[in-house]
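During the no-cost extension, the postdoctoral fellow (Dr. R.K.) reprocessed legacy sequence entries with the updated structure-token encoder. One reprocessed record is reproduced below for audit purposes.
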Amino acid sequence: MNTKEPVTGSTGTSGNSGTNSEPATSIYAPVTTICAPATPHGVGALALIRMSGPQALEIAGKVFHSSACPDLAQSEGYRTYFGRVNDPAGELLDEVLLSVFRAPHSYTGEDSVEISCHGSLYIQDALLRTLVENGAVMAGPGEFSQRAFMNGKMDLAQAEAVADLIASENRTSHKLAMDQMRGVFSQELSVLRSRLLELASLMELELDFSDEDVEFADKQELRSLVDSLLVRIGKLCDSFSMGNAMKKGVPVAIAGLVNSGKSTLLNALLGEEKALVTPVAGTTRDTIEDVLVLDGIPFRFIDTAGLRHIGEVDEMSQEHVEKLGVKRSLETIRSAAVLMLVLDASRPETYTESLQSVAVFKNEHILFIINKIDLVCNIDVTLAGFMNTLCNTYVTLCKSNAVIIPVSASKGVGIEDIKNTLVAKIRPDLDRNAIILTNLRHYQELRAAGEALQRVREGLDARLSTDLLTPDLRQALHHIGSITGEITPDDILGEIFGRFCIGK
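Re-encoded structure tokens follow.
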């Protein structure tokens, strides 16, 4: 069990991180020096080989030769040298740049070197083999970041953000990862935990002096604190669905009756023929999806099967396949963050059925897409007729935030209006949350902490004694501390860092 209190150092991802004059404290004393490529496997112009550990400079000095630095072990940090490296046979392998980072001012908190060589696979493999033959060992997945965590250069939440940063594919997910890596989330948790620790210590004192009948902890203050913590934890947990959407794309369900133009609309939004479009009604039998980034926000558009009522059918029949498609469409609508209900402007008699078919959607974000406006003579009359049907048929959907957009998907009319509206609906959700959870482990730990605090709150209301409250309070502290790594089982650390790429 790791129970260290990490020392906050630099949280940068480059080798020149760290500016503190005092060395980072650590309970971790590495006995090995690790090496690994820090660039993807394959041929490129350049490749980067990293090495970190107590013998990093000594090993590098055996294979690197430069007139500018005859003795690499004596080099200062933050220095880059041009020189040559030899292969295991002693033959010239490549001309390289070698950068030196001295402990504790490195990414890992250890003496480190980074060797920039040409991107030949042969050169990379030969260089790594040479380093290993001189005493280094190949690093496991995430071992550099794990050493950074163990040496107090970052807490566990920040370390996990490194992996999210590497995997970020859009501006929003990049920003979320950068905020977490800079410690925004960790600072929030630190405040929560410190307040809990203060009150927990007072409650422990009461247990120590139970014979004296002395009350150190103000129960009213504790009740107020628990309430405020529950509110904050609740907001953080609520933000997880948005954070998860930022990683995978905000789910936008495109629903409607058969032959309303859903697939044509999907193709128009994506700018490519993603979905098959035919004159035959019910061509789409299953969900089709793709991601489109709009103003830095990823949206995952899901084209669903056409909605219609299908009764009891034989499992081997064509209708059974369609029924399964409709069932999956309804499941997609339920889980979507945004619903785009597509209606055929040329068939106003279908408006009522269309609205009734999406009664399962409970989210406030809904767009009514009046498609095929090129087939109607008077769009104003069409829109007025739809509004009347909406108000009469499904009052709960007739809200101020319900948006009606007339389009012609086949002609490309109104597509930009849809994109702008989607961004306008989701952007406030992002701006409203200063901190957004993106990590499932963090969400689970916060949920568990919230449940423990809820039990404390119920115990306070029931006027339970201090000795009955402290176990749940300790549980809340444990779960919050597990997020940043103050208290983290070693097997959990292995699982977390095992997901990292080699060389990070």
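The first helix runs from residue 56 to 63. Residues 1-155 form a domain with the Gyrase A; domain 2 fold (CATH 3.30.1360.120). The remaining legacy entries will be reprocessed before the final report is submitted.
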